[in-house]
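Replying to the earlier thread about multi-chain prediction with a worked example.

Input:
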Amino acid sequence: MSSNVAGLQPSPGVGPPLWLLLELTYRCPLHCVFCYNPTDFAATGPELATQEWLRVLREARALGAVQLGLSGGEPLAREDLEPIVAEAHALGFYVNLITSGVGMTEERIGALKRAGLDHIQLSFQDSTRELNDFLSSTRTFELKAKVAELISRYDYPMVLNVVLHRLNIDHVGEILAMAERIGAQYVELANTQYYGWAWLNRAHLLPSRAQLTRAEAVTRAFRERVGPRMQIYFVVPDYFETRPKACMNGLGNVFLAVTPDGTALPCHAARMLPGLEFPNVCAHDMRSIWYESAAFNHFRGEAWMKEPCRSCPERGRDFGGCRCQAYLLTGDAANADPVCELSPHHHLVTAAVAEAERSAADGAGRAPLVFRDHRISIVVEPHGGPPPAP
Amino acid sequence: MSTLAAGARPAIAHGMRLQWEPVQEAHVLLYPEGMVKLNGSAGAILERCDGVRTVEEIVADLERAFGATNLTDDVTAFVGLALERGWLELRE
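Result:
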């Protein structure tokens, strides 16, 4: 551990946790193959009660948190979503609901509006019913279309989120047309990030470079046609990059997530990182969690870095990339993110891409797709060491 | 954007919210999953964009408040930029 993690002194210059994400529940009617939730979610503790969430909101707001994401699992599975939104709104949060749409009714969307919900991000798995329903292992396509119509009618800004991967990336043109049809103002074409269930399914999900190039060209052309009335974000899959993403803007710098059982994390996926005891909001207040806990201080600053990051002129820009990715791919969370071509482990990324290209071509030698599921979550629980490489 | 009329009435765009954040000691503009931290003059201009006041009135008010003169060009340029970025919209 680095020198500033004795646990009592906040690192100098640590700003407020501007972005608070509450994962209210791991319950979800969908079974998405690319879900980033931990594969051992079934082994986590009971969900926080309403009053505990409300206290988390008050304490985080006092620290300066202002953007609030309500997510999961499926946050609509919580029957107390409306009072949680109402408290967040009264405190001055900008409240974003991140949902699959399952569980949304006209009654609830009206109640959420009255409670002060600012925005709804609706996820689709694909532009076609077949693939949407296959990828989520549900029949939800028509339902999502109805929810999109409700979002427009109740005058919420609408962000459409579609996670891209090999099985749907060739439909980007149709996905964008669907977004335009249902009146989305923002579209996130988020290429899969390989954590959780997506990590298990990586060999199925990594697109080929040719697919990626085509999808980017289609997106560019669409963007030029529609102009500024639709904002389109295309999140490149970082396995195809030569420099890592500035993950979370550095762990512990702006982002704070709380899992359904109250575990506070500096990134949604960070619970996998070994050797860190992530504090629970039931035992600690948010101020001490953010400024004083060893887990939140561990990857602040640069003292934890190894070469090539430690002496790299770009370390202040990308913070060495993603700690979870470094851990999953190399077994050591303090290594450079192997997406970086300067990493001695970069070959692991290029090999994964090459392997995906091969397996896409011949379809051989692949494990079956694993759908996010409570029963499987108990079977694949990956304690001790990184989960097996796909 | 240089054609922005002095009689136009800018307002914070639909789906955006302007608020003062004491911890950041700044005005911020909030929108779906994003935030812009504003410097002092941007905050002072945007907090006057209420859809009622014209650009001309906003300029006059700012000149009074800050004991300044000749703010028309700066304010018009910023309002133009904010319209372009979708932070503001014009009201009748």
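Residues 151 and 158 of chain A are 7 Å apart (CA to CA).

Feel free to reuse this layout for your own posts.
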